[in-house]
Design goal:
By secondary structure, this protein is of the alpha/beta class. Helices cover 33% and strands 13% of the residues. The chain has 12 helices and 13 strands.
Length: 381
């Protein structure tokens, strides 16, 4: 069989792409009252011009009982469809593909809550300090329907697919994690019960959007829980196999949370830090596997694509500093990404490279980094 190459057209997770380098979901901090803004359109236009193979949006809120903040896009009613269709149109104009990441933040939020905060169980979130209210079974069913509603609206907005966010300490990761899911009903108590809500969300989306509508998922290969109580590699492989058997179209392999031993956004000294987990996953599933985390060198990426069963890689922070990075590499300038992994780019006034801020803005942003656990994590600067 001919070896895969980075800059070749391919079909990944049911989607035709022009190359195998994707933009992983990245918080934009640029929505206005839960809707797409001109600032967001410019961000995505620059990425598409930069010839990234596929863009996964920053997470989009799906539930009326979630509290994602005004600078996050929400898709809880039809009023957001027109703005999102403008976003997908911008990307499609450049011949690129885009999928919507669907999420519920649960108790991992970065501002004071304005009402009840819900989670699988009443386990206090280690980052926010919030002790949430457990979902009732009826609320779980409502949540599953809300994911389906959001996927239908995403399809209407001409997204090429959706990605379920099952990682990084947010709601579905909490359902999957034995450290946070202490339920004793059909939605918790064992790996097979912990995964049930995710399987039902997958079924809901496929039923309502069509079995050929691509549905991906982002999973933690490990929660990297300091106490060793969270989701681990064994759980991850079991969950991934069951999802593959039930129709998930692709799995993006990530890990950690903002309160874990390892953050999803590690220091530059950590390279390709989920690679071995992703390689092991490719041995047990027959669906596309996408690797994210610590990928800044094109020779490394080329080697991963050509020498392993991993179908594509995705990046976040390097494309914040250089939205044109993929085109630069493709055109022959193979210097490493300029990103230094300082984590200063996740800015509440709009995600942007820390080094493009004024000195006054840098001081304010350092405080934001502490609040989000990005500067405090021992593996992030």
């Amino acid at each position: 069989m001919k070896a895969k190459t980075t800059f070749e057209p391919a079909v990944v997770g049911g989607i035709e792409v022009q190359n195998r380098i994707f933009r992983s979901a990245t918080y934009e901090g640029a929505a206005r009252d839960g809707k797409v803004s001109d600032q967001m359109i410019e961000m995505y236009n620059n990425l598409a011009k930069g010839e990234v193979g596929l863009i996964i949006t920053g997470w989009i809120g799906v539930s009326g009982n979630d509290q994602p903040g005004a600078r996050t896009v929400v898709l809880t009613d039809d009023s957001s469809i027109s703005g999102l269709e403008r976003l997908t149109g911008t990307v499609h104009l450049h011949g690129r593909k885009i999928i919507a990441q669907l999420n519920h933040a649960s108790s991992q939020i970065f501002s004071p809550p304005k009402g009840p905060v819900y989670a699988p169980s009443d386990v206090t979130d280690p980052l926010s300090g919030i002790k949430p209210t457990p979902f009732t079974k009826e609320q779980v069913q409502e949540l599953i329907a809300e994911f389906g509603d959001a996927a239908v609206r995403a399809k209407k907005a001409r997204f090429d697919g959706v990605q379920i966010h099952g990682a990084h300490g947010y709601l579905l990761n909490k359902f999957l994690s034995p450290a946070f899911n202490k339920r004793t009903d059909e939605y918790g108590g064992s790996s097979s019960k912990n995964i049930r809500i995710v399987l039902e969300i997958l079924h809901e989306i496929k039923t309502r959007c069509g079995k050929d509508f691509p549905v991906w998922i982002k999973l933690n290969c490990s929660d990297f829980d300091p106490a060793g109580q969270g989701l681990n590699e064994e759980h991850f492989l079991t969950i991934a196999k069951e999802l593959a058997q039930n129709g998930i179209d692709a799995i993006e392999v990530s890990g950690g949370s903002f309160s874990a031993e390892y953050s999803p956004c590690r220091h530059k000294s950590h390279a390709a830090y989920h690679l071995e987990y992703a390689k092991r996953l490719t041995e047990v599933v027959d669906i596309p596997v996408i690797l994210v985390g610590g990928l800044r060198n094109i020779d490394t990426i080329d080697s991963i694509i050509s020498k392993t069963k991993i179908d594509a890689i995705s990046m976040s922070r390097p494309l914040i500093r250089e939205p044109e990075l993929v085109k630069r590499w493709k055109d022959g300038d193979r210097k490493d990404a300029e990103c230094v992994a300082c984590n200063g780019c996740f800015n509440p006034t709009g995600t942007q490279c820390f080094f493009k801020l004024s000195e006054e803005e840098k001081v304010k942003q350092k405080e934001v980094m502490k609040l989000m656990g990005l500067a405090r994590n021992k593996n992030a600067t």
